[in-house]
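User: Hi! I'm working on a homework problem where we have to compare a predicted structure to a textbook description. Could you give me the structure for the chain below?
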Amino acid sequence: TRRRALAAAAAVFAAAGGGWFGWEAWRSEPVFEQRYQTQRGQQLDVQLPDGSVLRLDTATRAEVTLYRQRREVRLPEGQAHFSVQADAARPFDVLAGPLRITVVGTRFSVRHTQTGLDAGGVRVTVEEGRVRVASADPTAGAESRLLGPGDAGAADADGHLRSAPVAPAAGALLWREGRANFENTPLAQALAEFERYGPTGLTVRDPAVAAMRINGSFDLRQFGAFAKALPQVLPVRLERRQGTTEIVSAKR
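Assistant: Happy to help. Predicted structure tokens:
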């Protein structure tokens, strides 16, 4: 009868719908979840089950979730280098601040910090392969950039993309060796970068001194060597005050 036919059709539809929802739930269920965090001055190498390798810099948090059809890492704070195992069926996304960085297999670095170099923004440096950088907000528009070997891209806190000057690969990824390359960098920003790795005991209060520009490659764990070099490269002197060393103008 017509009523029986409709009931049978409804049963088939319900079974199909239930199967579809079950399949979607199965596909969206993570197969691996793990959070990693480094302390101030610490670096950490992480081997993921898919064969990808992460190196986390100092004061970095990373949240890794692997699904059956995609891979995702959230970088709420810090800096990390990614060696992604190629898998065309499982794209690898890094979510850092306002950006989504998407790859299949490549080597690249992402920085998303609130202090030090590029504070407040996101910087992506590609070592090999190709990386697509776009807004993490799907409603923000279709603006995106494809970066290749030796390219770098950056975004401000609002996700506005821009090109970034790129140093040679050895210099752009010096942080993996615990070093930083300062190029016309304000002294206050350079000092903040050192502070990410540990207490320097150095302070700067004079805005004119804080704005002085510094150049050079420095070991981020050798605070004493950095302090000793300052009067040789800038018109400043060091004054010991109440347990800290203040950087002041040499003209005072």
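For your comparison, note the following. Helices lie at 2-28, 169-172, 187-195, 207-210, 223-233. Residues 99 and 135 are 5 Å apart (CA to CA). Good luck with the assignment!
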